[in-house]
């Protein structure tokens, strides 16, 4: 019975982690594009130079790492459940 719960939780973590990572990758790509666009004329106006923008970028990076960790835990949980099936 615990294998079913482990598989279910692992699947939810896997899907949630992948969706989160894809979304955050899209957000980071937009931020990189904004950095390139805003930074053409004046280096002081580049995106990410202000403390507020830098903190936002740091939070996005942390969220991306957590999404990747959730994906890895989901894969391990599903593998563990499949390996010890009765």
Features:
86 residues; mainly alpha; 0% strand; 2 helices
Structural topology:
Layout: H1 2-38, H2 51-83
Helix pairs in contact: 1-2
> Distance N terminus to C terminus?
9 Å
Largest sheet: none
Backbone CA Rg: 19 Å
Strand content: under 5%
Number of helices: 2
Structural class: mainly alpha
Uncertain segments are none
Helix content: over 70%
Run of helices and strands: HH
Number of domains: 1
Principal-axis shape equals: elongated
Average pLDDT score: 83
What is the count of β-strands? 0
Short description:
With 86 residues, the protein is mostly helical. The chain contains two helices and no strands. The model has no long low-confidence stretch (mean pLDDT 83).
Characterize the structure shown.
The protein has one domain. The longest helix has 37 residues. Helix 1 runs antiparallel to helix 2. With 86 residues, it is mostly helical.
